[in-house]
Amino acid sequence: MDALDEIRKRYHLAPPTFANICKIGTQPERSTIFQTSCTAIELQTFTIRPAERNWLRHINEHTCIPYPIREPVTEPWHKASLLVQIDLSGQPWPTKITQATRKELHGDLMRIYLVFDQVLRCIIDVLGHRGDGRGVSVGLDVLRSLHARVWEGSGGSGSGMELLQIDGIGTARLKKLGEAGVRTVRRLAGLECYHIERLMSRNPPYGQTLLRQVARFPLLTLVVESLGENRTPLEGDGGLWMVGVVMGYENEALPVWKGKTPWVSCVIESRDEKDNGRLVWFWRGSVKRLEGDGGRGKEVVVGVTGYQGCKLRVTLACEVLVGTMLHKDFEL
């Protein structure tokens, strides 16, 4: 059995869904991976009910979503796409539906997310099998956004959207924090409880309760350094270079978010003109494995084929939380 057959059987997806995944081009954009997930055969059961039609059209035509549908909104994949996009946008759902219809849509959305999770993980594995490092990073970006229920980097750098992951913070409180220059969980965690209460116009112990929650949000650390060449380059080939990677976290206690210990992934990809986007190395594991000895973190030495001056990028992030991603660009 070859590797692709193993991946197909691992996720139990319909043959047309898997075939569509295998058609994704090299170094895909976020939009390509998202749309491929939306068109999975497994989502065909989520047909548009009569009471939902105008509401879905309103989302498509009158809300700020990144990927509007360019054709009449009639297909099940249109519904899946629009439901996920409005949910990840941080905007309140339009009110032009009954409470019963809203309840049905929320139930559909939870099941749609389960399908998306399987399809996205399959996409990441297929792109990893190809050695497409850029594709793996983008796939992890979409997976992280789906689980966090907000787009990674949505609204641009410093938009504050990552704060919506915190229980009790909605759009109104997000605005208050943004006006005070608080746009990241890391920044919020550094405030005093009384400062939070003043910003939010809330009484104690609101600040302490919020700080206890964000104290366990993973504050990842990443150190990367070239350790030099390990052998003489062969003709037409690069040398073998050793790269030291140290992954850890700043939190005083083991990060736990909403009762679960997050998993993290680390991707090294080439950023060089000769082989831009090539997957160099991939690691995935529980944040528990980042504890290391003496609090320094998990230390790994990676062998990289390349040449002096070759450009690489290392990306470390939690798989289910936005606002945790770290990039390190360096040269051999």
From TrEMBL:
Residues annotated as domain SEC63: 1-332
One Pfam family, short name: Sec63
GO molecular function: 3'-5' DNA helicase activity; hydrolase activity
Superkingdom of origin: Eukaryota
A biological process from GO: meiotic cell cycle
PANTHER family tied to this protein: HELICASE FOR MEIOSIS 1, HFM1, ATP DEPENDENT DNA HELICASE HOMOLOG
Protein name per Swiss-Prot or TrEMBL: SEC63 domain-containing protein
Species in which this protein is naturally found: Akanthomyces muscarius (Entomopathogenic fungus)
Organism lineage: Eukaryota, Fungi, Dikarya, Ascomycota, Pezizomycotina
